[in-house]
Amino acid sequence: MKQQQTIYEKIEKSLYKRDSDCTDLSPRELQAKKRMMLCVSKLMNDPMTPDTDLITGLQNGFDGAVEAVSQSQAYRDITMVNKLVGNIQLSAKNWYRHIIIEGAKKAYSLAIDEKDTRGAAACLNVIGKYTRADKDDDAPNWDEMLPPSLEPSDDITLLDGMKPIDSAELEKKRIEFRELFKKEAESTQFKELKKDE
């Protein structure tokens, strides 16, 4: 029996479709979809928006943009939004870190051109701080790394796409290879004898 989809699974599949194309969503689910889209767009505009601001906005209906919901519904919506967009704040932090480092590099270049040693040192300090160049690399915890548990087997079917070869067919192939290599070896020896003569 096919498992019934949750409201959030249905919304996720039709999140970026027009409302007129979402025939499988009920009016209540369309309202939830509208709330999701509003929260996602707010996070895209400002990734550092705290969840509390979104929850407050959902409870107030974002000043009439959507229907106001209860606090518990707002928390459920935010959980779904976080599943949809992932940890967008982490990527935003990486972007800001990149901007800071690039700005510090340009400032360092200008400080060197102006022969401003203090400015250059301050830029290097910023670069070192944001690249963590002043700290040792985190060594892996070798105790937590376990080698794969492999069990020896002579069953070839355990390998993907491999089929066992019949014993008679295998022996036939061996005979063919012996004949082939024997001819090759004899022709090579014959060529070497001719060279020696």
Fold and architecture overview:
The chain has 197 residues and is mainly alpha-helical. Among the domains are: 80 residues; 42 residues. The chain contains seven helices and no strands. Helix 1 packs across helix 2, helix 2 crosses helix 4 and helix 5 runs antiparallel to helix 6. The radius of gyration is 34 Å and the shape is flat. The mean pLDDT is 82.
What's the quick description here?
With 197 residues, the chain is mainly α. It has helices spanning 7-13, 27-45, 51-64, 71-85, 88-113, 117-131, 167-196.
Jot down its keywords:
197 residues, mainly alpha
Task: Tell me the layout of helices and strands.
Elements: H1 7-13, H2 27-45, H3 51-64, H4 71-85, H5 88-113, H6 117-131, H7 167-196
Oligomeric state, counting identical vs distinct chains: single chain
Helix content percent band: 55-70%
Q: Whole-number average pLDDT?
A: 82
SSE series: HHHHHHH
Largest sheet: number of strands, sense, barrel closure: none
Q: Beta fraction of the residues?
A: under 5%
Structural class: mainly alpha
Model regions low in confidence, pLDDT < 50 over at least 5 residues: none
Number of DSSP strands? 0
Give the overall shape. Answer: flat
Radius of gyration: 34 Å
Q: Gap between N and C termini, in Å? A: 83 Å
